Amino acid sequence: MTGAQPPAEEHEPDPIVTPPPAAEVPGGASRGSARTLVSGTSWSAISQFIPLVINLGMTPYIIRGLGDARYGIFMLITAVTMLLSQFDGGIGQSALRYFTIYAGRDDRVATTRLLWSVSIVIAAFGVFISVAVAAFSGPILAFFHLQDAYLAEATFLLVTLTVVVAFLLLRNLYNAVVSARHRFQTLSIAVIAGHLVYALGLVLTIENGWGLYGVGVTMILQQVVGTIITVPVGIRYLTRAGVGLITRAEAAEFSAYAWKIQVGGVAAILASQKDQLVAARIVSAQESGPFGQGTNFANQLRMVPLNALAPIQALIGAEIGAVGPAEARGKVERLQYIWVVAVTGWCAVGAPATLVGVRAWLPESYALAGDVAAILLAGHYFGLVCIVGRTWALTLGHAGLAMRQSVVSLLANVLLSVVLWFPFGLLGVVAGTSLGNLAGAMFLSYDVRRVVQTRIRWFMRDVPYWQAALAAAVTLALELLAAPFLPGGPIGLLLAGLIAVPGAVLFVLTSLGIGGARESIALVRRR
To answer: Which residues touch 354 (CB under 8 Å, ≥6 apart)?
Structure first.
């Protein structure tokens, strides 16, 4: 790829992350990239699939147990608190970038000093948002036409989840240290244990009629369990010699990176949660459940390949920290090829399977969630396919890329949602979200050519186009033929997923070939 030279300020030496000339890389780049990726992804996948199975089995039960209205309120408050979690100044995501590079050269002093410094800021921010939401919870809920009968429960849940989010922002700094050291097993165990607490708590809540009060207490206990597991491990990679604050110059540099991540993060979360919020505003919090559940299900499917993101971040950061961008480029390009093929196949067969499977899975009143989830998953593809290239640029310090991509995506999202609202209603708003993701990915492609000097291959060159179209068409035909015969509940959803297997096999064989498929299976078995 060729393009204009980037502005000088984007290529100034980074005093925090510039690697030493001959750094030893304990636990970093010395591990094989395939081993790191497969091991980390496997543990991350386990930590999602077990909770996913629990959710698939329990969601119809929870909807009926809480009732459509309370469940819709639960989805809405979750969306609001997710939005609030992004207003941390970009500190959390920025810290992860530095922690991965520090891990590449085993710099525990720098890790400790940065964690200590940003923890103070995060703690202050957490207190601020908790107090602010507690003070303005009434107007927030009134904006979404909440009925008075649910006001007390909803207020308790909103304030409780806000405090939980504030606590998570602080805890996730320690989780980032754990992730940077490739301790994905620890993070996975914490997620699984916390979700088991979540499942048990919701069962007790429904059976005892505790409503949204029980949901709030359950969410607190879930995070307490996860904290007990991960934070002690993160502390092992810190040192007393690093206790203290980063220098003023380092703080200025970190802030210059973080504010761009902040803007991009807010824009991204607004885009992802917009459909639930718009639906709640138009039809009320009580009736917005199908849009919230459709959004949630699409995000769950999006998170399946994103289980590889933490290993990808750790691998890219360690490689750059150890050998520099030029030497790391070849390995990252090979990684990108595997990633692009995998997410293309996942979304090609996943969207049609989702359309039919979610309709069978949920109660009839939530049938619209299937349409919402399928449209959003198709749009999520454009955010997924560029992940490796985007992570490469972020690790090199180009936080402005992520910010501009997210802002462009959000602006296109809003504009197209308004345009499509008139002919298609709320489903047009959802389609606007997907098309906004496409606009963001295309802008990122242009922006990388303009800004990044040491570039990897353009991700769109690795997309198997006709193979994906063929697999999607075959899957859609099979799903529509089977739809009238699918049973309701989790079994119907599971069968819809199994019906997608022929399309997935077809995609693998046409995109990788029999030899490539055998090599991929052998690699996974070895690792």
So the answer is: 297, 298, 301, 370, 373, 374, 377, 496
